[in-house]
Amino acid sequence: MYKGIIRPLLFLLNPETVHHLVIALIRFLFAVPFVKPIVSALYATRDIKLRREVFGLSFENPVGLAAGFDKNATFYRQFSAFGFSFIEVGTVTPLGQPGNARPRSFRLREDRALINRMGFNNQGARTIAERLGRGRTDMIVGGNIGKNTNTPNESAEEDYADAFLAM
To answer: Which pairs with CB-CB distance under 8 Å and at least 24 residues apart come from 60-68?
Structure first.
């Protein structure tokens, strides 16, 4: 069904639009009380052989979600149900910024590839840190930090320090 119907329909839309649709769908479905346990039963794997200890952190399994999907830490809690044991939010910059002008995400159909030049669109480190501090989750959450677009390269270390300290 996915390859024959859903994927061709999604590929008619801009990739960034599809991203926002998927987020909206996840939020909508997970608002229904029984959906998260069902998704977790289908996708989350609990096997002691998969557990990893790295730098003093215990990971349920070695599979995580890299930065870029949940840039503003608005729905990271739902991802443990899909079997991820960690997620990286961001990329987060000291100050919020809109990112690059649209369109900024492109499909290369022949190569079955996607070009992403979003430009670190995010709401800023302090806003995201406050959001992360509002609740607990059963998975490890990391943050990917970057410099603001308008910060000159020779001042980048200050942006990285500001973002790090805010997070």
So the answer is: 60/85, 60/139, 61/85, 64/88, 64/140, 66/144, 67/91, 67/143, 67/144, 68/116, 68/118, 68/144
CA 37, 44, 82, 53 torsion-angle sign = positive
Nearest CA among 55, 67, 161, 159 for reference residue 121:
67
- The CATH number of whichever domain residue 123 belongs to comes to 3.20.20.70
Summarised one tens digit per residue, pLDDT across range 33-45 is: 999 999 999 998 8
Choice between 52 and 46, residue whose per-residue pLDDT is larger: 52
**Separation of alpha carbons 59 and 53, rounded Å:** 6
The enclosing H or E element of 143 equals strand 140-145
Number of domains in the chain: 1
CB atoms within 10 A of CB 48: 6
pLDDT in tens, 84-142: 999 999 999 999 999 999 999 999 988 988 899 999 999 999 999 999 988 777 789 99
Domain hosting 134: range is 2-166
Kindly report the backbone phi and psi dihedral angles of residue 143, in degrees, each rounded to the nearest multiple of 5, phi listed first: -130, 135
